[in-house]
Amino acid sequence: MAISLSLTRFGLLGPPGGQPPGDGRDAVLAQLRQPTLIPPGHGMPDLAEGLRLHRARAMEVVAARRERRRPEFVHQQEISRAEAEFRVSWAIASTLPLHERLSLHWGNHFTVAAQQSTSYLSGDMDRAAIRPHMLGRFRDLLRACTTHPAMLNYLGNDRSIGPNSPLGRRSRRGLNENLARELLELHTLGVDGGYTQEDVVETAKLLTGWTIPEPGPNGTDIAFLADRHEPGPRTILGKRYPEGGEEQLLALLEDLARHPSTARHVTRRLVRHFLGDTAPPEVAPALARVFQATDGDLRAVMEALVTHPASLSLPPAKLRPPVELVISVARMMGGRPARPMLFTTLRALGQPWMGAPSPAGWPEEDQAWASPDAVKSRLDWALQIAGQREARFDAREVAEAVFGAGLSAETRRALQRAANGGQAVALLAMSPEVQRR
Amino acid sequence: MRHLIGRRGALAGLGSLFAWSYAPRISSAAGARDPRLLVVVLRGGLDGLSAVVPLGDPAYAERRTGSEMAQAGATLPLDNMFGLNRNMPALAEMYRAREALILHAVATPYRERSHFDAQDLLESGFPSLVRGERTGWLNRTLQQLPRGERLPPPRGLAISPMVPLIMSGAAPVETWQRQTFRYADDDTIARLLDLYEARDPVLAEALRRGAALDGVMQADPEAMGAPAARQAGLPDFTTDAAAAARIMARPDGPRVAAISYGGWDTHNNQGPVQGQLGRGLAALDAALGALRAGLLPVWRDTVVAVVTEFGRTVRVNGSLGTDHGVGTVALLLGGAVRGGRVLADWPGLAEHQLYERRDLMPTTDLRAVMKGMLAEHLGLEPRLLGRDTFPGSEALRPLQGLVG
Lengths: 437, 404
Prior knowledge:
Chain A is mainly α and 437 residues long. Chain A is built from 23 helices and four strands. In chain B, helix 1 (4-14) packs across helix 9 (201-218), helix 8 (186-199) runs antiparallel to helix 9 (201-218) and helix 10 (238-249) packs parallel to helix 11 (276-294).
């Protein structure tokens, strides 16, 4: 089956009739050249509002404890539900589906999951940290994500105190190594990237002070609290970073972004995400060379990936993760029915919104989503949404209009022989052409 | 169920494809056994002192003041020292029948206060936090099970949308979760199977297994999928428990499974009798009762282990709750469990006896309990238990006399 780069490998399917001719490569490259469109908030919390919710919750918890009552605040799940609806609707309507794929990929590379206040802040992380930089320089993306309050909160850096800082000496609290470890292991160098436990501890010390912004004088917010920053120079990966407060971290991130292990790790993950587990071994190193030659220009890296012959020659391998499946099927069907609820659907399909099981994010293996219960649930879901399609929706016509020559004879036959229109819609949604990319 | 008849037909058509097709045979003095293990993970940190109350410790009443907190004292007596929370009659019944063994002042090696990290350690079975790719001790248990006459790898079952860490690893694991959508009709399943068999063998195999698993749930009118009869005001833990029991009780069902329940992080208005915790314990008790009922034909060869990531502070906090602590309880239930006892090297609740002057001091390592149970119940080799199942615990002696 010939793969369409714009629909399948780098896309999220799409409405019938809007398909670019041929393999879709030019359409993908054209999307890469577009500036990323940042979704307007549409009432979703921006950073200021997220911080307000976070602070209100913290104050209310203390007050309620004092007054011996149940605390009342805007629950994270409320924000999470609204955010999921908004983000998925935006992706369904998008004319730049590759950008949505990249937002999901980098959101997974820099995973934050619902914990403490992350749900108040994670929407802003997508809009203000990931999207503006995901086709720019990796170092800017890294800096924006590492210092974003959602990340600082999720990986506990807001609770990490330098033992020799003024606050550290007053309190019994100490270092939290989470962010340091994930920064090196997951976000930059990779687990085999050549760092030691000592580097992790030094990085954790260097990271102390970066926290969820606290209100400063004149309505400003302060993201770096010097009184909990571990003073002194740090040595990481053999390089000395002189004391310098905030500047110390920014210098480290510059170096990490340029490290050859980072080029290798980041490009490996991109290749695995878009080409699958069986991509030829020479693809990732080729991308890593582009990464290094361009000082981490992610647009150039993506262009190299899209134009690599393996992008066309490899068959679709990966089962679409549930969130991509929901978006893709909705794009193909001209919208998403209100029921079943998105939040419920994603949980039932195994990918609850903001629910990644660990900082490593959702799994990337080709068959990660192919567990029996998950596949069966996909079918149950497909039948349910098929029951709500518009009467004029004809799965056979849509399949031809979307996939054309890419439709397999077996799928075509299954659709033509379907017992009724609803069953045909479910079979189309469950077909390998839709399920895999 | 709507497709009752058709479902049976479909199941027959699927043949023996619902195949964990595996049966360990563990020889023992009593003859060959076919043991099953279900681990119930309570997420959030269960307050062990409210579940199994140390009535005989004079410091208990002092520390647990406040109206509802004190009421936890109105409990079912277990022995001279402990009483069981009165919301747990099914557990009390198992205790009386000597099928419930209670362990108190238990903890994993974790001594900090993060749920995130504590659950990580509880599930990975590692002695300290490890980042990156981790596996769970229950999955490693699967890999070490003595193989039966048939050789396909044993499969685990997780009652959850995703495989939790405790079940993650090289051994194959299937998941089952309560049905959110209506079940697909058999005709559509059959047509899709045809398509997958021609185009996508991986999806074909997954769909076949998934459909068979759902078929078990629908196979008779008492079946699962619809929520269990709910008691007003209680969280429904029973539906998942009954489903797990149903799948595990099958002759070709999985022998090792995990299920989790949340809601134990009772910082505010803990209410061990009528409040949040009281309702949670009642729901848990109903679930444990459903497990016993569903597994009754194989109860003699079953162990249900109930564990939580940590306990809670001994003192009541300002909002009538408790905060993250250390020592807590663990339960072993089953027909062959040497129950009717509370096993505890009781450290005492006077302030100087507490861990960091705030938490129940752990005197038993949870890994020693699990190692003892795995050795006696599943016949795992002691050498592997300290090296592979719970790495770095070679020096920790498995508790003996728990099962059998």
